[in-house]
Amino acid sequence: MENTKYSKVYRIIHWLIAISFLLLLITIFLRLTWMNKFNVAAIIQDYLSGTDQVLSQEQLIDLAKKIREPMWNWHIYIGYALVGLFSIRFILPAFGRMKIQNPLGKTLSTKMKFQKWTYIIFYFCVIVSLATGLIIELGPTEFKRSMEEIHVLGIYYLIAFIGIHLAGVIIAEFTDQKGIISRIVSGTKDKD
Ligand code: HEM
Protein backbone atom coordinates (compact mmCIF):
# COMPACT_ATOMS: atom_id res chain seq x y z
CA MET A 1 0.00 0.00 0.00
CA GLU A 2 1.28 3.48 -0.86
CA ASN A 3 2.38 5.44 2.21
CA THR A 4 0.39 8.68 2.63
CA LYS A 5 2.46 11.83 3.09
CA TYR A 6 0.89 14.48 5.29
CA SER A 7 1.38 18.15 4.41
CA LYS A 8 2.16 20.81 7.03
CA VAL A 9 -1.41 22.21 6.85
CA TYR A 10 -2.83 18.71 7.26
CA ARG A 11 -0.68 17.99 10.31
CA ILE A 12 -1.35 21.35 11.99
CA ILE A 13 -5.14 21.02 11.60
CA HIS A 14 -5.03 17.36 12.64
CA TRP A 15 -3.16 18.07 15.89
CA LEU A 16 -5.12 21.23 16.75
CA ILE A 17 -8.36 19.25 16.39
CA ALA A 18 -6.94 16.28 18.35
CA ILE A 19 -5.72 18.49 21.24
CA SER A 20 -9.04 20.40 21.30
CA PHE A 21 -10.99 17.13 21.55
CA LEU A 22 -8.79 15.93 24.40
CA LEU A 23 -9.31 19.20 26.31
CA LEU A 24 -13.05 19.04 25.56
CA LEU A 25 -13.10 15.47 26.91
CA ILE A 26 -11.43 16.67 30.13
CA THR A 27 -14.15 19.31 30.65
CA ILE A 28 -16.87 16.66 30.10
CA PHE A 29 -15.06 14.24 32.44
CA LEU A 30 -14.80 16.88 35.19
CA ARG A 31 -18.46 17.82 34.81
CA LEU A 32 -19.52 14.19 35.12
CA THR A 33 -17.21 13.40 38.07
CA TRP A 34 -15.39 15.75 40.49
CA MET A 35 -17.31 18.87 39.49
CA ASN A 36 -20.68 17.16 39.18
CA LYS A 37 -23.27 19.60 40.58
CA PHE A 38 -24.81 16.96 42.90
CA ASN A 39 -21.38 16.02 44.32
CA VAL A 40 -20.45 19.65 44.92
CA ALA A 41 -23.89 20.38 46.43
CA ALA A 42 -23.46 17.39 48.79
CA ILE A 43 -20.03 18.70 49.90
CA ILE A 44 -21.51 22.14 50.69
CA GLN A 45 -24.46 20.51 52.45
CA ASP A 46 -22.08 18.36 54.50
CA TYR A 47 -20.03 21.43 55.45
CA LEU A 48 -23.12 23.43 56.42
CA SER A 49 -24.47 20.62 58.60
CA GLY A 50 -21.70 21.49 61.10
CA THR A 51 -22.92 25.11 61.25
CA ASP A 52 -26.28 26.76 61.96
CA GLN A 53 -26.76 27.73 58.30
CA VAL A 54 -29.24 25.98 56.04
CA LEU A 55 -29.58 26.15 52.25
CA SER A 56 -32.38 24.65 50.16
CA GLN A 57 -31.50 21.94 47.58
CA GLU A 58 -32.14 24.53 44.85
CA GLN A 59 -29.69 26.98 46.42
CA LEU A 60 -27.11 24.23 46.87
CA ILE A 61 -27.34 23.24 43.19
CA ASP A 62 -27.16 26.92 42.19
CA LEU A 63 -23.98 27.37 44.22
CA ALA A 64 -22.51 24.13 42.83
CA LYS A 65 -23.14 25.37 39.28
CA LYS A 66 -21.45 28.68 40.06
CA ILE A 67 -18.39 26.84 41.40
CA ARG A 68 -18.31 24.69 38.26
CA GLU A 69 -18.81 27.61 35.87
CA PRO A 70 -15.17 28.80 35.40
CA MET A 71 -14.18 25.22 34.49
CA TRP A 72 -17.22 24.71 32.25
CA ASN A 73 -16.58 27.97 30.38
CA TRP A 74 -13.58 26.14 28.86
CA HIS A 75 -15.99 23.67 27.23
CA ILE A 76 -17.63 26.62 25.47
CA TYR A 77 -14.27 28.24 24.46
CA ILE A 78 -12.96 24.94 23.10
CA GLY A 79 -16.33 24.38 21.40
CA TYR A 80 -15.95 27.72 19.54
CA ALA A 81 -12.33 26.83 18.66
CA LEU A 82 -13.59 23.53 17.18
CA VAL A 83 -16.22 25.39 15.14
CA GLY A 84 -13.35 27.44 13.63
CA LEU A 85 -11.06 24.44 13.12
CA PHE A 86 -13.77 22.32 11.47
CA SER A 87 -14.80 25.25 9.24
CA ILE A 88 -11.18 25.39 8.02
CA ARG A 89 -11.07 21.60 7.75
CA PHE A 90 -14.19 21.54 5.54
CA ILE A 91 -13.04 24.47 3.38
CA LEU A 92 -9.56 22.99 2.73
CA PRO A 93 -10.76 20.38 0.15
CA ALA A 94 -11.92 23.30 -2.05
CA PHE A 95 -8.22 24.25 -2.27
CA GLY A 96 -7.24 20.66 -3.06
CA ARG A 97 -5.96 20.03 0.48
CA MET A 98 -7.02 17.57 3.20
CA LYS A 99 -9.59 15.90 0.93
CA ILE A 100 -12.78 14.47 2.43
CA GLN A 101 -12.73 10.65 2.41
CA ASN A 102 -15.00 9.01 -0.18
CA PRO A 103 -16.18 5.59 1.01
CA LEU A 104 -18.05 4.81 -2.26
CA GLY A 105 -15.03 4.02 -4.47
CA LYS A 106 -15.60 0.70 -6.30
CA THR A 107 -11.99 -0.43 -5.99
CA LEU A 108 -11.78 0.04 -2.22
CA SER A 109 -11.12 -2.93 0.06
CA THR A 110 -13.59 -3.66 2.90
CA LYS A 111 -11.02 -2.33 5.38
CA MET A 112 -10.65 0.97 3.49
CA LYS A 113 -14.44 1.31 3.19
CA PHE A 114 -14.79 0.79 6.96
CA GLN A 115 -12.09 3.39 7.61
CA LYS A 116 -13.68 5.97 5.32
CA TRP A 117 -17.22 5.36 6.62
CA THR A 118 -15.88 5.84 10.17
CA TYR A 119 -14.64 9.32 9.21
CA ILE A 120 -17.90 10.26 7.42
CA ILE A 121 -20.03 9.16 10.40
CA PHE A 122 -17.66 10.97 12.79
CA TYR A 123 -17.83 14.22 10.78
CA PHE A 124 -21.63 13.98 10.69
CA CYS A 125 -21.76 13.53 14.50
CA VAL A 126 -19.29 16.40 15.04
CA ILE A 127 -21.41 18.73 12.88
CA VAL A 128 -24.48 17.78 14.97
CA SER A 129 -22.53 18.46 18.23
CA LEU A 130 -21.21 21.80 17.00
CA ALA A 131 -24.60 22.93 15.66
CA THR A 132 -26.53 21.89 18.81
CA GLY A 133 -23.80 23.44 21.04
CA LEU A 134 -24.07 26.73 19.15
CA ILE A 135 -27.88 26.69 19.35
CA ILE A 136 -27.75 26.02 23.14
CA GLU A 137 -25.42 29.00 23.56
CA LEU A 138 -26.67 31.46 20.98
CA GLY A 139 -30.08 30.22 19.82
CA PRO A 140 -33.61 30.90 21.06
CA THR A 141 -34.37 29.55 24.57
CA GLU A 142 -37.34 27.44 23.40
CA PHE A 143 -34.89 25.12 21.54
CA LYS A 144 -32.43 24.86 24.45
CA ARG A 145 -33.94 21.77 26.17
CA SER A 146 -34.30 19.64 23.02
CA MET A 147 -30.84 20.65 21.76
CA GLU A 148 -29.30 19.73 25.14
CA GLU A 149 -30.88 16.27 24.92
CA ILE A 150 -29.15 15.65 21.57
CA HIS A 151 -25.91 17.45 22.48
CA VAL A 152 -25.14 15.42 25.64
CA LEU A 153 -25.15 12.18 23.59
CA GLY A 154 -21.89 13.41 21.97
CA ILE A 155 -19.78 11.66 24.61
CA TYR A 156 -20.69 8.22 23.14
CA TYR A 157 -19.46 8.76 19.58
CA LEU A 158 -16.47 10.81 20.78
CA ILE A 159 -15.16 7.99 22.97
CA ALA A 160 -16.00 5.35 20.32
CA PHE A 161 -14.21 7.33 17.58
CA ILE A 162 -11.09 8.00 19.68
CA GLY A 163 -10.90 4.25 20.52
CA ILE A 164 -11.40 3.09 16.90
CA HIS A 165 -9.02 5.78 15.57
CA LEU A 166 -6.18 4.95 17.99
CA ALA A 167 -6.61 1.19 17.47
CA GLY A 168 -6.65 1.69 13.67
CA VAL A 169 -3.48 3.80 13.71
CA ILE A 170 -1.62 1.31 15.94
CA ILE A 171 -2.70 -1.65 13.76
CA ALA A 172 -1.65 0.28 10.61
CA GLU A 173 1.73 1.14 12.15
CA PHE A 174 2.46 -2.54 12.83
CA THR A 175 1.09 -3.91 9.53
CA ASP A 176 0.98 -2.20 6.11
CA GLN A 177 1.54 1.51 7.01
CA LYS A 178 4.84 1.43 8.89
CA GLY A 179 5.90 4.92 10.01
CA ILE A 180 2.34 6.35 9.84
CA ILE A 181 2.65 7.73 13.40
CA SER A 182 5.93 9.57 12.72
CA ARG A 183 4.56 10.87 9.37
CA ILE A 184 1.53 12.50 11.05
CA VAL A 185 3.91 14.06 13.62
CA SER A 186 6.91 15.20 11.57
CA GLY A 187 5.59 14.60 8.01
CA THR A 188 7.76 13.97 4.96
CA LYS A 189 7.55 15.63 1.54
CA ASP A 190 4.38 17.77 1.23
CA LYS A 191 1.54 16.07 -0.61
CA ASP A 192 -2.21 15.79 0.06
C1 HEM B 1 -17.72 18.23 18.85
C2 HEM B 1 -17.92 19.15 19.76
C3 HEM B 1 -18.62 18.92 21.06
C4 HEM B 1 -18.82 17.78 21.81
C5 HEM B 1 -18.37 16.36 21.49
C6 HEM B 1 -19.55 18.18 23.01
C7 HEM B 1 -19.95 17.31 24.02
C8 HEM B 1 -20.71 17.65 25.11
C9 HEM B 1 -21.19 16.74 26.12
C10 HEM B 1 -20.93 15.23 26.14
C11 HEM B 1 -21.91 17.45 27.04
C12 HEM B 1 -22.63 16.90 28.27
C13 HEM B 1 -21.80 16.90 29.51
C14 HEM B 1 -22.61 16.25 30.61
O1 HEM B 1 -23.25 15.23 30.39
O2 HEM B 1 -22.58 16.73 31.72
C15 HEM B 1 -21.91 18.83 26.59
C16 HEM B 1 -22.60 19.86 27.22
C17 HEM B 1 -22.63 21.17 26.74
N1 HEM B 1 -21.97 21.68 25.65
FE1 HEM B 1 -20.85 20.62 24.36
N2 HEM B 1 -19.77 19.54 22.98
C18 HEM B 1 -19.23 20.02 21.80
C19 HEM B 1 -19.26 21.33 21.35
C20 HEM B 1 -19.91 22.37 21.97
C21 HEM B 1 -20.01 23.73 21.46
C22 HEM B 1 -19.51 24.20 20.10
C23 HEM B 1 -20.70 24.44 22.39
C24 HEM B 1 -21.10 25.89 22.36
C25 HEM B 1 -20.38 26.84 21.83
C26 HEM B 1 -21.06 23.55 23.47
C27 HEM B 1 -21.79 23.90 24.59
C28 HEM B 1 -22.25 23.02 25.55
C29 HEM B 1 -23.12 23.40 26.65
C30 HEM B 1 -23.68 24.80 26.94
C31 HEM B 1 -23.37 22.23 27.38
C32 HEM B 1 -24.27 22.10 28.64
C33 HEM B 1 -25.61 21.56 28.25
C34 HEM B 1 -26.42 21.28 29.50
O3 HEM B 1 -26.46 22.14 30.37
O4 HEM B 1 -27.00 20.19 29.58
N3 HEM B 1 -20.56 22.31 23.20
N4 HEM B 1 -21.18 18.93 25.44
Categorize the overall geometry.
elongated
- Helical amount among residues, as a percent range? over 70%
The biggest beta sheet, please?
Answer: none
The CATH architecture can be named as Up-down Bundle
Radius of gyration: 21 Å
The low-confidence runs, each spanning 5 or more residues with pLDDT under 50, are none
The overall number of domains is 1
The number of distinct β-strands equals 0
CATH topology: Fumarate Reductase Cytochrome B subunit
pLDDT averaged over residues: 93
Main structural class = mainly alpha
Strand content: under 5%
CATH classification class = Mainly Alpha
* Cα separation of the termini: 16 Å
Please give a structural write-up.
This protein is mainly alpha-helical and 192 residues long. The protein has one domain: Fumarate Reductase Cytochrome B subunit (Up-down Bundle), CATH 1.20.950. It has 7 helices and no strands. α1 (8-32) runs antiparallel to α3. The radius of gyration is 21 Å and the shape is elongated. The protein starts with 7 loop residues before the first helix and ends in a 6-residue tail after the last helix. Bound molecules: protoporphyrin IX containing FE (HEM). Protoporphyrin IX containing FE is lined by residues 24, 28, 31-32, 75-76, 79-80, 82-83, 126, 129-130, 133-134, 136-137, 148, 151-152, 154-155, 158.
